[in-house]
Fold Oxidoreductase.
Amino acid sequence: MFNALVLEQHEKQTLAKITSLDDDLLPEGNVTVNVDFSSLNYKDGLAITGKGKIVRQFPMVPGIDFAGTVADSQHPDYQPGDKVVLTGWGVGEAHWGGMAEKARVNGDWLVPLPEGLTAQQAMMVGTAGFTAMLCVQALIDGGVKPEDGPVLVTGASGGVGSVAVTLLHALGYRVNAVTGRLEANQAWLKQLGADEVLPRESFSAPGRPLDKQQWAGAIDTVGSQMLANVLSQIQYGGTVAACGLAGGFDLPATVMPFILRNVRLQGVDSVSCPKAQRQAAWQSLTKLLPASYFEQACHTIALAQTPEYADKIIQGEVKGRVVIEIAHQD
C-alpha cells in the first residue's frame, strides 16, 4: 500500500483527496520509483482545482514531475537504488504522476539525477526550472547576447519566470522582470538577479503593432495580449521564447515585428523534449544555479497541503517554487 493524492470527478467537480492505494493499482511501466519529492507547478494547480482541462482520465494522481529512487526496474538503463528525475511526458495528466509515495513509469521518460543535486534540489528546479533553461537556451540559439541589451521576463514571480531571472543573471544578461505583484515581489526578484522590476499593467492593455524597440530578447510565460505587446517592443533581430499561457492561449498580434524587425518567436515545449536535450539542460542548470537560488526561490510543503497551495498558485499568490516532500510510511 502507498499514499497518494488522488483526483476524482463528481458531477463535473474535481475532488482531491489523500488515499491509500494498493501497489497493484499502479499504471503500466517498466520502472517503479519510490518518490521522495514532487513539486507544484501551475499546470498541477489547474489539474487539482479542476480549473483547467489538464486531466484526461479519472482517477488521476497529479504531479507532472518527481525525483526519487528506483525500487524495481525492467529497463536496461536503471537498477534498484538509482536516483532518477522525471519531468513531462504527460505524467500527472494521462499517466499517474509524482504526488504519491510510488510511481510506475516508462524508463525512457526518466533521466539520472544530475550529479551535484539532491532529489529535493532537483524538484526545486523541476519542470519549471527545466523549462526556463530551455527558454534561455532558445535565446542563446537565437543569437541574443548579453551585450545586445536587456532581456525581459514576464510572469517573473512564478516558477518558470523566477528560474529564468536567476539563469539569465548568472549568464551576465541585464534582466527586466515583469510581475503582477510589484510591491510584494520587487525586492525578492532583485535578489534573484533582476535589474529592474516592472508592473504587469504596463504590458496588459492593447498596444501598437510596432512599439519602441526595448528588449534584445524575452522569455514569456503569459501569452495573449502581454506576448503581443512584448513582440512589438523587441529589437531588430531579437528572439522571444514563449512557453506559457497563464494569460490566455490567444495571440492578438500582427506580422509586423516578424517581417519588419526580423523578430523570431520560438515556442518552447518541455513535455516531449528529447532525452539528449533533457540531460544537457539539467547539466546546465546544475552549473548555473547558485546556492542562493535554493534558499531564496523555494519552499517545501507536505503532501496534505497541496490542494490548498494549488488554489493559491492559480490565484497568483505563490512566488517561486513549491516543493512537495513525500513522507513515506514506516
